[in-house]
Amino acid sequence: MSEKHHSAAELLRELFPESYRELFGEGPADAPLTLGLYPVADGRLALVHGEQLAEFTPIAPKGSAALHCDLCHHTRSRSEAHIYRVVVAARRTRYVTLCTPTEGCQQRAGVKGLAALAERIFPIENIYAE
Predict the structure, then answer these.
(1) What is the pTM of this model?
(2) Alpha-carbon distance 120 to 60, whole Å?
(3) CA–CA dist 63, 90 (Å, integer)
(4) Are 98 and 126 in contact (CB under 8 A)?
């Protein structure tokens, strides 16, 4: 088993991003943005694009009609896909259908498919008063 070695700057960037920005600045402008769909607690998903984050909340399944995945564009049975709710503003919600599990779906869609999904979701407006 190979051991991974991380520099102090990498650990600082990952664990303490604000301190990293204070010490090293924003980082190289040509660095690729983080882009991905990740599972979180209770069946929810998180779409990450750069510093933006959207939470996808699953909706209880109803009916038996097939669903069309908005990410990989495959048609799936009700047991192979879920509908998710994404709150994008105070009074605006988007609904997205995704395959379950999403790993294979993301591979089929590729980076272009994830970027297209992110364009539909972001930017998310702050729904809480500051």
Answers:
(1) 0.72
(2) 23
(3) 29
(4) no
What does the block give as tokens for 126? 């702050």
pLDDT beyond 90 at 83:
yes
Structural contact between residues 83 and 99, judged by C-beta atoms closer than 8 angstroms: no
CB atoms within 10 A of CB 126: 9
Q: 3-state DSSP call for residue 77?
A: coil
Are 81 and 70 a contacting pair, CB within 8 Å? Answer: no
Q: What is the pLDDT of residue 124?
A: 82
Alpha-carbon torsion, ordered 81, 46, 110, 103, to 10 deg = -50
Write the CB contacts of 45 (distance below 8 Å, at least 6 apart in sequence): 37, 38, 39, 55, 56, 84, 98, 102
